[in-house]
Design goal:
There is one protein chain. The chain has 237 residues and is α/β, with parallel strands linked by helices. The chain is 38% helix and 18% strand. The protein binds S-adenosylmethionine. The site of S-adenosylmethionine has 20 residues, from β5, β7 and α7.
């Protein structure tokens, strides 16, 4: 997979690139490149944003600046680009990133991520250049970089060879293997700490019973989550 992140802070992604699963994905042929909007802006002083028409606080990322950055990278009209690869604007109000959506994105050959800052994007960027608008949660971050890193992290760890043990990505929270439920609890040594004992079944060596116990705990957690959502204690999806 080829991931390009457009941002005003490309250096932040150095840390992400050093993470084991990301390095493994890269060793397997995937790429994670950053492009700075400022590198291709034709405006003086590296300007990339402007005041919002109609007034209001904050600055808005300019459509001409984003177009120049996409053209410089892909040598293509950005209106046509989204037919060739997913072009994703990160925004709090976008489609919520969940495990099924991560699977969908992980199946793509290439992704382009646009990180907003300040007040966000000129709406024409989203309307004309983007195939998707993605949110990592119903709260507002200062910029799209952390959201892009969350998306990259979640997507890249799904790629073959990214995790040390392929089984890790198969049976985990929200996966189809667990019917979309959260994962069951894990325990390790010591078997007892301050009187808190690990459930006997996990020490029994009886694989079928362990499997059944895990499924039940996972299902219970899912039911609890759904009840919390119904009662308003957890946000709706
Ligand atoms: C301060 S936010 C802009 C918020 C915008 N004015 C609003 O109210 O929706 C700046 C940028 O951070 C990113 N961002 C903030 N929260 C996000 C979230 N929950 N998911 C994805 N991106 C987010 C977006 O790229 C956004 O353009």
């Amino acid at each position: 997979m080829e991931i390009d992140v457009f941002t005003l802070f490309p250096e932040w992604f150095g840390w992400l690139g050093e993470q084991r699963h990301v390095a493994n994905a890269r060793a397997g042929g995937s790429t994670l490149d950053c492009v700075n909007f400022r590198d291709s802006t034709t405006l003086s002083g590296g300007q990339v944003d402007d005041m919002p028409f109609g007034g209001g606080a904050g600055m808005v990322l300019r459509v001409d600046v984003v177009e120049a950055a996409l053209r410089a990278r892909y040598r293509l009209d950005p209106v046509a680009l989204r037919e060739r690869r997913r072009v994703i604007a990160l925004a709090p109000g976008g489609r919520l990133l969940d495990d099924a959506f991560v699977d969908e994105l992980a199946a793509e050959p290439a992704l382009t991520l646009l990180c907003g800052r300040y007040e966000g994007f000129d709406e024409r960027i989203v309307e004309h250049f983007c195939s998707d608008v993605v949110s990592i949660g119903r709260y507002v971050l200062a910029g799209g970089e952390l959201a892009a890193m969350v998306l990259c992290d979640a997507v890249l760890r799904k790629l073959p060879g990214a995790l040390g043990d392929e089984r890790s990505a198969v049976e985990e929270s929200f996966s189809a293997a667990l019917d979309g439920n959260p994962e069951y609890p894990h325990y390790t040594r010591p078997a007892e700490h301050r009187g808190w004992r690990v459930p006997d079944v996990l020490l029994s060596g009886h694989h079928a019973r362990i499997e059944q116990w895990r499924r039940e705990r996972s299902r219970e957690r899912g039911e609890r989550q759904r009840a919390e959502r119904r009662s308003g204690a957890s946000p709706a999806e």
